[in-house]
Amino acid sequence: MKNLNISVISAGLVLALGAGTAMADRSEWPSSFTVGTASQGGTYFTYGSGWANLVADEIGVPGGGEVTGGPNQNLALVHNGDMAFGMTTMGPAAEALAGESPIAPGVPLDNACAMFPMYETPFSVTVLSNSGIESIDDIPSGASIGFGPSGSTSDTYFPRMLEELGVDFDRRNGGWSDLAGQLQDGLIDVIAFAAGVPIPAVSQLEVQTDINIIEFTQAEQQQIMDTFPVAAFEIPAETYQTLSEGARAVSMWNFAIARCDLPESFVYEATRAVMENNERMVQIHRAARFSVPENYDKNGVLAWHPGAARWFNENGFSIDADMIHN
């Protein structure tokens, strides 16, 4: 009986210590969190708002997505502590680390850490079918082209890409939904999208009117790949009703980011919530089919948050110590 009592007391002490550790970990967590996304009508907004809600449900901390100017602004907001989490692409991330972000020129934004892989962002061109534009070469000189929100991945890279291909244009900015409305009303000629597919604004456009999704030629694709930090990509035919076959494009990887000084256990649980619930993520947006742990190696730019790195390392995806923020 004495031995039994000692065993019961010991077990109770272990449980109490475990509970105390858990309470101590959570005591350092924020009372709520915000995820920086991008404009409404784009993939970032749909995806980011969805994963914020999923994480909030899974870990019991209120959270939500917030409209922002996209990857560059998200890096700055997370770095400055205005938001806990955000979403970015690898090109803007590399520029931000080097102090070359258009949001904060000369200031290395190094307090934003990698959290988990999201998906590839294809760069694609959409026009109305009655425009007569069926290729990049068909875009008339001086055409008004919408490049998304100012400072977004599209706005940062797509104008340079089209200039590289010899296109002369009048640059316009705005949210994707707003630009889609302008295209339909004839106020602009072209939208140059950089967003995970299917892009909500394009899906809505093709329901309301006839559109062309313009692909790059092989030569154009190679020329862009030789000049910019992008890879070859094909937009699958089943992505849009408009496509009868895959469309040649280029793409850049997106990663979720976390403020580097957030508690390790908080980011660990938030990472676990997304990485272990891919079916729910795909229900939020089809681009999340690429949000799987195996794609962790697509990040060669940002240091990993220690909490995120711990989840990956525990689950068989090795992240080197020199790639983990300390």
From TrEMBL:
Q: Which InterPro entries match?
A: TRAP_TAXI
Do you know which Pfam families this protein is assigned to?
NMT1_3 (PF16868)
Q: Looking at the keywords, is Signal present?
A: yes
Q: Which UniProt keywords apply?
A: Signal
Signal peptide interval: 1-24
**PANTHER family to which the protein is assigned, alphabetical:** SLL1037 PROTEIN (PTHR42941:SF1)
**Record-given protein name:** TAXI family TRAP transporter solute-binding subunit
Q: Which organism is it from?
A: Spiribacter salilacus
Q: What is the lineage of its organism?
A: Bacteria, Pseudomonadati, Pseudomonadota, Gammaproteobacteria, Chromatiales
